[in-house]
Design brief:
By secondary structure, chain A is mainly α. Chain A has helices at about 5-30, 30-40, 45, 55-80, 80-100, 105-110, 115-145, 155-160, 165-175, 180-195. The structure holds a DNA duplex.
Amino acid sequence: MTQKMNTEARREQMASAALNLLAERGSEGFNIADLAESVGLVPSAIYRHFEGREDVLDVALDLFRDRVYGLVEAARNEAQDPLMALELLLTRHARLIESGGAVPHIMASMSASEEHAARRAKTERIFAGYVARVESLVREGQESGQVRSDIDPTAATLLFVGMIQPAALLRHAEGERFDITVHAARVWDLFRRAVAQD
Amino acid sequence: MTQKMNTEARREQMASAALNLLAERGSEGFNIADLAESVGLVPSAIYRHFEGREDVLDVALDLFRDRVYGLVEAARNEAQDPLMALELLLTRHARLIESGGAVPHIMASMSASEEHAARRAKTERIFAGYVARVESLVREGQESGQVRSDIDPTAATLLFVGMIQPAALLRHAEGERFDITVHAARVWDLFRRAVAQD
DNA sequence: CCCCCATGTGAATCCATATTCACATCATAA
DNA sequence: TTATGATGTGAATATGGATTCACATGGGGG
């Protein structure tokens, strides 16, 4: 038999594995059998740790939220100023996508499901929370004078948030030929020109 | 019995209805029973016009491609110059989202499916084609001197393409409180500042 | 005007997954 | 060291959709 594992550790392992699967296949392609296999167990074992599929998705979403919000906080803490924090955040998103942790895919695929309204609502709340956090960086930038004060902070925020998503899609389509890191640097220049105080 | 209908007309009606369903629920939530109901028929009737679910999706995707590409062409034809064409395109995307024809949802949810690699590949090709069309507008803008020539056209294009997507998500989350049309106008200003020749 | 075949129907059937259950086995705490 | 309860297993079972099929029927060409 496979090694037994401490409850909490196993649960986290499963949630993390679930998130990986979600990143590559979206919520549609996500299934219990694959999840079980990815942690080296049998499907029924999943039910020792979760109520069912929907519960797994719910917990994976929690993990996703924590990681994404953590990304923003880390960028804020490590950067000298708000604008630099945004740049750092963008760079890290790019790296994340490059390594397969497809954030946009997850957001998009989870929020599309009309049934399971709870899951959808939760996804949207997570997204809104992410936007709010980025927006606070933008506002701080305005207060510190780095960011023009005559622009709408929400608009600037959504412009920022949208910079990576299409790139992630195109990367799938074009593969290696498309370098996300380079792209990130280029769009950052554009974003900076759009919002920075001269 | 429900009125019988000419083959071609019925097929188109079904494809169009399928696209609507896709827009609101994504490919995960899409099912034959709902499609049948939305055209006032019984599930098995769908099979008189399509090979099966995957075939429906395929044809709906064709329709989607035509409509989206058509949007770009229309904008190009109606506008005086490339930059104006982009602005028009943005405005129309916004309107489309407002009326439920959620373009980004479709793209994202279709491209997430790992299985049915064909469908995924097709979605990505459609997206790439869309990007290419927008990019040609950007390049024309550079040639005509409206757009700065020192920026990478692909980067500018993806920045443009990303402007609407997050807004669409946020709209779902915040509902009426969030006005996409107003948002579109604001991000357009930012985009213009980023790319326009002074 | 009537026939014939494509369209529409409802009742099966199939299938892929999720989920449950009875049983086995390990980890650990007393 | 051993008892015990939680973890893992494999074989059912349940379920929701897709798909098939035998039959009904309406509309357009002869």
